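Entry:
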Amino acid sequence: MRQDHSTIWDNCLRTIRDSVDPQSYRTWFEPIKPVKLSSNELTIQVPHRLFYEWLEEHYVDVLKNSIHKAMGRNGKLLYQVLNRTNKRNHLKAENGHDKPATKSVRPDETTADQVRNPFVIPGIRRPHIESNLNPRFTFDNFIEGDCNSLARNAAKAVADKPANTAFNPLVIHGPVGLGKTHLLQAVGNHVAERFPRKSVLYVTTDQFTNQIIDSIQRNAIADLLNFYQHIDVLLVDDIQQLYNRTKTQDIFFNLFNILRQNNKAIVLTCDRPIKDLNIEDRLKSRFQWGLTADLSIPALETRMAILKSKAQTEELSIPSDVAEFICHHVQENIRQLEGVLNNLVLRHGVEGRDLDLDLAREVTEKFVDRINQEITPENIQKAVANHYGLEVEKLQSATRVRQVVLARQISMFLVKEYTESSLKSIGNLFGGRDHSTVLYSIRTIKNLMETDDEIRSTMEELEKQIKLGQA
């Protein structure tokens, strides 16, 4: 039975669907229409010349395989490019035979309201601008603390009134892994939800540079700037990457001026203060027009809140001692906290491990340089001495000053509690005292823990520090 062009193309699509991801399939293959079948040649219609060029550059092997499966080794694929004037241009696919005759194809005529979108294939009259936002980054799941309060509140102010903020641009800076990208995208997601008619775009500096390179190659810089002028809220990540990119800095300078003059919101991030950026002074000056807010290393309590919040999204309840252990050792990078959490989830779910300190130690040591693996008498002495503002030598001396005596007795109690040291060896650690003195010290501290709230609180704090390796 002779097959028609629709049947042949349906067979091709079945093969293609198994070879590409769903998003690519919807973007690049669903818009294609089969036109005719002549002998061993199938003609398909694509919406634009650059659509054809993209297919040839990225999916030529997929197309070749699909047409051979549908029509045999002699099968060929022809493209038909449809212009707005309804004039059609024909191309032969690069399937091992002819080179694509790109010079013979007339590009679509553009109109005043057409905008070249560097993120999508051209040819759409007024393309929908994809924001490139990750919906999981919101203000609701951004944990606020002293380390990020200014940046968070400034970002929220921009998101609430993107066309009427008191500062433009907003520049958020700080070390890697403290939440700059989270805040940047939270602005975009908030604006997209509250002001659906506003166009929002998140772009990294590397992406922007690649778009400029592509536009230069196509002699289409004007199209790129035209596209960006339609953005209401521009979010640019990692502007420190502008370093040594002279052309990118020049174009970004012009774009920045246009957007700001048109009252469009601009939010930028970088890994250092503006004054330390290695970029042109005129750009530094522009960036300093608005507000600069920094992100610093969060305190232990904030890190624990962040960890527990992220754990809740994974439907995981982390014991407080485990969370504190992890957050004590992972101090400077929130992404590391996520990495530790992901490993905990995996080990707990797949291996059935308990969420205890032993598992936390095993996982955390893969992310940080040093974790105290053993509680030693020396560490205990140091922890107690630090708590009371003493030198360790004082604990080993013969002095009978009340505070020193109390610190010495606490140290003996903790050494006995957390190490395998004998009474004799403990006595030797504290200036050659005999075992009866050690026993007396241990009993004294036990009694005080039952009757003295201040001592009990001190012991709890010291035990926590020792377990966490803070000595």
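The chain has 20 helices and nine strands.
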